[in-house]
Amino acid sequence: MRYHGVDLHKKYVTVSIRDDGGAQIAFMGREYDLAGYVGRLTAEDVVVLEASAGALYWAERIAERGARCVVIDAYRFCIIRDSWQKTDRHDAINLSLALWLAESTGQVKLPVVWQPSPTVRELRRLTGMYEIINKQIRQLKNEVHGVLLDNGVRDHAVGEKLVEAPGHSAELLASLSLTPASRFCVQAALRQLLALGEEKGLLQRRLYWTGRPLDSDVRLLMGIRGITPLMALVFLSEVGDITRFSSARKMHAYLGVVPRVRSSGGTTRTGRINRASRHLARSLFTQVVPHLVGSSPSMGKFYLELAARKGYGRARIAVLRKIFGVMRRMLLEGEQYRGIEEALYARKIRAYERELNKAEVEQEVA
Hints:
about 375 residues; 5-stranded mixed β-sheet; 7 strands
């Protein structure tokens, strides 16, 4: 076997290769032909890459050659993170040495990163763009409200009418007393909101189309009140393979809905939730907590009792933990939600199928 430590960069890679005895048998300082290097790999090669932009793509190409590829988290790999000599050469050498030790002797445990399937990777790319568009929409809406306040328009409902229907706002905007610069800025913001709204609709349908391999799981999760097809796909793309979490708590930590815990001298303190995690599912589900609370009487009772003792902020996060745990069990066991509302569920399914049909037409036109 040959053990390759690859320090991946945008334009080139630095590679250190070791044999079965751990001796370095080859070193490539700057290999610009990455495709050519991957094309020379065989089933006798094991490669380690740091998780970075493009790493998962090249991991798939390496696997296609019959070689085995391991992707690691560089921030948890102390040999590189705490290295005194942080150079491409030393990183590649340390990677190949650590890989050889892990594979041959078991003296080192590599912080391996889970490699999502192509479908999950595509969904994550689309949900990332969805998050960017939503952020731009929020910024533009806030800008419109701010401009109106600066011009003495204190009725929040006026601003809401403008930003929620930017394509039908000319008459309302004309009735407002704004300075020329303010009027121009509001018009510019409304034009952008209109364009972003159209892009958001296209992106949402593309998400539905891309998530067709997960259709059965999407329909299963939609049985919970408040969960739309989009939210189901976001959850599925965030967690990936649900079976890789041995417990609900580990999944909760991954999704950022458990508090940090500090324990010393017999004293344990819980802090705020861990935000260094996948966060989109947490953000979207937080917005529909009132619907989730109404999904079952027990959930509503749990939320109200906890809110009275700990406050609404902690109660919302606790509801997310319970819902995520329920969704995990549903996916593992293939069971419908016990509190499913059949009429509501049927309407959601019909709307979902209409959007899928639109997405299919858009794909054919494209």
